Amino acid sequence: MELAEFLNKRIKHAVKSVFFNRAQYFCFFVAMFVVEIFCGLVVIASYNSARLEYKYVTERYPHHLELRNMNEDQYYYMENDIYTVFANQHIYDKLKVESRADAVTGEKYYTYYIKFVGDPDESYHTFINRYMRELNNLADENGGKYDMVLTPLFDVNDRIAINNAFGVLAFLLVAALSVALIMTLYNIRINHYRFEYGIYMAFGADFRRLMSVCVWEMLVVSVVVYLPSLICSWLISFAVYKLAGQSYEYYPWTPIIVLAFALVVALLSVATPVWRLSRRTPRANILAEDNSNLVASPRISFEMLTKTYPRGYELITGWRFRKYLLKLFATVSLFAAAFTSLIYATGLVMGVNDYLKNQFYLNFYDDITYDGGTEGGFMHEELMEFPGVTGIVKAANVTAMQMSSHIVFSNKNVKFGVPTVYFSDTERATNRASYNACDSEVIESYLSQYEIEGDPYSALKNERTVIVSPSQWNFTALNLKPGDKIKVAKKIYGPALQLQLTGHKLLMTQLDMAKANVYKFEYTEYTVGAVVKNLPSSYNIEIFFSPEDYAELTGTETVYKSIGIYADPNLSYEEIDALRDELDRWGDYYLARVSSSTAILDRNIAIAKRVPTFIIAIAVLLLAMTPLVWFFAQILFMFKREGEFTVLLALGAIMDEIKKQCVYDGILAAAVGGAVNFIVTVSANYLTYFLANHLLFPFMANRLRVLFVVPWAAVAAGCAISILCAFFSCVVPFYLFKRRVQLISVSEPEDI
Amino acid sequence: MAILEVSNIIKQYKQYDEIITAVNRVSLKVEDGEFVAIIGPSGSGKSTLLHICAGLDKPNSGSVRIRGNEITAMNPDELARFRGIYVGFIFQKHNLIPQFTALENILIPTLMCNKPDFSYEEHLRKLVEALDIGDRLHHLPSELSGGQQQRVAIARALINRPQVLFADEPTGNLDRENAEEVLRLLLHTKELIGQTLIMVTHDMSIAERADKIYKMHNGELFLFRDEHGYRLNSYEDEAKKSKL
Known about the structure:
The complex is a heterodimer.
Chain A: H1 2-20, H2 22-60, E1 65-70, H3 72-79, H4 82-85, E2 92-101, E3 108-116, H5 120-138, E4 147-150, H6 156-192, H7 194-202, H8 207-243, H9 254-279, H10 282-287, H11 298-304, H12 317-320, H13 322-354, E5 360-364, H14 378-385, E6 389-394, E7 397-399, E8 407-410, E9 421-422, E10 427-430, E11 433-437, H15 440-445, E12 452-454, H16 458-461, E13 465-469, E14 471-472, E15 475-476, E16 485-493, H17 503-515, E17 520-532, E18 541-545, H18 547-554, E19 562-567, H19 573-590, E20 592-596, H20 599-609, H21 611-650, H22 655-696, H23 712-747
Parallel strand pairs in A: 11-18, 13-17
Antiparallel strand pairs in A: 1-3, 1-4, 2-3, 5-19, 5-20, 6-19, 7-11, 8-10, 8-16, 9-10, 12-17, 13-18, 14-15, 16-17
Helix pairs in contact in A: 1-2, 1-8, 2-6, 2-8, 2-9, 2-20, 2-21, 3-5, 6-9, 6-21, 8-9, 13-21, 13-22, 13-23, 21-23, 22-23
Chain B: E1 2-15, E2 18-31, E3 35-39, H1 46-53, E4 61-66, E5 69-70, H2 76-86, E6 87-90, H3 102-112, H4 121-131, H5 146-158, E7 164-168, H6 176-193, E8 196-200, H7 204-207, E9 212-217, E10 220-225, H8 235-242
Helix pairs in contact in B: 3-5, 4-5, 5-6
């Protein structure tokens, strides 16, 4: 009964407060509506992402394990599995068996598709313990073609966990944005309506009680918009998936999560403003009814301008209220900045989705090597003729550290703060480098994806010329330009160091030993022929040599024992399987083992999730909040200034003069607001680029590097909205004031 | 027994580069159940002193004790709770919350503070009867006259039965008739509850009804008329004798 009475009191109080001030709370209704849509979208998108991940993986791979290319002995061993047949220790289901004949010998090879029973991890370990030894024993010489491949179904739970982790991250990000939005509005409201809270404080309201008042009010707002926001989030997410031809499921827990989210956002958003309010004395709050809390002293302003107060009333409002206006500009700019950053992030996500990955790998065994190259290698021609093959990438490389080598460059080429080792007064050195063999095929199929300064073919045409990617962890480490010189050290003699040294400590030790003639290095000078600007990088600076230079430096012939094959991402799974069969047959001739990756599956899953569309939806909703913040703040602000305008009118000012002042304010606000917006949005974009490019991408499995690009259309949209809002939020309240004055004149003539 | 003890209160404001001392080394003792009036010209610091005594504002230095509790040493939350239980305040401008009816405005203190073992229903009935606002309870402040608004403000200040009631020019915005009525009500409820009343007023005829009158001048407080009716002739003379 007491609880019912308590709830009745609080809810009644909050409902009255909200609906009496409904014009003032209008923007909270809209903001809460949007915030709840944010939450709904993220929850539904996360759920459907995980669901689609599972659906795509299970459709493509209904099995956990493939035992590929088993010979007849291995096949019959598995067929007569004593554990299953005799002991009834059943840990897997055989989903299907495929057989094929070797294209050269005609021998039959079998592929087993296995689905584990029970816990896949446990069954897999049991499987390894039971069968692996015998399967290996029964394999052909050097393992033959036999291969055991775990499919994505095996770690589908990990994939879903990663998916959920991203979902939680997105949820937290959206929560942060939502709290920022509601907190901004609440700050504006509290700043203008401290009086009411001052009264509550005078009659005994402490922080807890004030929080209770504010949170109950926000709860009323949250509950009113709850159903419409749920419907909207459902409609948007439904449209996003259905328009892309994807299946869609509504997450049944969404309503509860959205409600809980709204409550938490309401709580967090009001906590800081109310805390600050409660630390002030009730008197300070009660007296802050006018705009005195927003005004920067006009006297000080005029002293700074060496003018006498008041000289001309026009154009000074913006200056008088600069504290308030700057706060407002900064706040709304942050929303525009979040919008452009999200648009930029959309581009990054799409870049990650579209990033080319090898669908197949060919590993040559015995003495065969890939003869490829565009200089007439027949393997290249043959492979490229298979339907669906779009490119071939090959790599032969060794790190400087592996061969006790290092590179030397001029002091002036070192970027500030990049760690290098002292070599001489004018030169520095590093062993954080990787040496790659490079021919025209590498340039065409690999390096040409990136931005290159200079002529990459000069490395092939000219002697002692290299292509350099002078970056570490996606940061440019060396300021190298075409025409610069670097020296590459080759160890002539010296002991293998037994010390557990790596990196620059190892290099310093080697250089010290070289001074003592324990080590000897031979230095060859190379000219930088071209610089790759945006090659993804981790520890090492990548240097590409012509095959001859590479062979001379490393002392080994340039051989390619493994190559990667790009496939058309639009291939169906049947086409991919057919291509795999073709490659298997090709591998039979050239003693190459084929393995495949999940590149196309991963890409299809990424596209199916529609993450960029959801980010854009959230970004647009966020941008739509900018006018709300502008007009809410400005209408409250101008409402408070109406007293001042009334006094001006009473002193003989005409309405047009006040209008002129508002228009000037609008022009000033638009100019400053637009400029602040531009600076903040571009800075925020750079920050997003920096975080993604340097702190996120280098650590991802498929490294990616992007160049900084300003999404001008998004920045322009943000600035345009800010400029328009700044202007009209100064002018519209004036017309509201004018209308009110006219209404009073018409309805209460006796008072005038 | 002194219910309010104020010692050496200083309150200064910074206005541009100038320091303005609104309350200058003021000390004051008010006994339980007393009616004390503070008079003085505008800008002399009366309201500031009253706000500090009620715990609505903080002094720069000095201390305020109510019922032996030093409120100047309390943190904002403790102070708020203390105010809710022991202190009532009537503002000069009524300061009613526009969205709430008269009744809801009166009940705000009950909602804001949990006074233990306190049931306000019977007290509310008596207050409403005494203040004669029974027929206006469900009206919004904008639908009440100035006098009615002030009565609602008085009821709000008294609903929690505070031991000390501070009133900042409660009759300042009222005509003579209404002012007399409000004073009568305040004294009536003072007797009803047995509380201490400290009132700032411009109106000498109202101040004359107090047990003691203090006068503020340039931020300093002087006893103007004691409980025996002794009247001072000038601040300067009395400053030597009665500045506390």
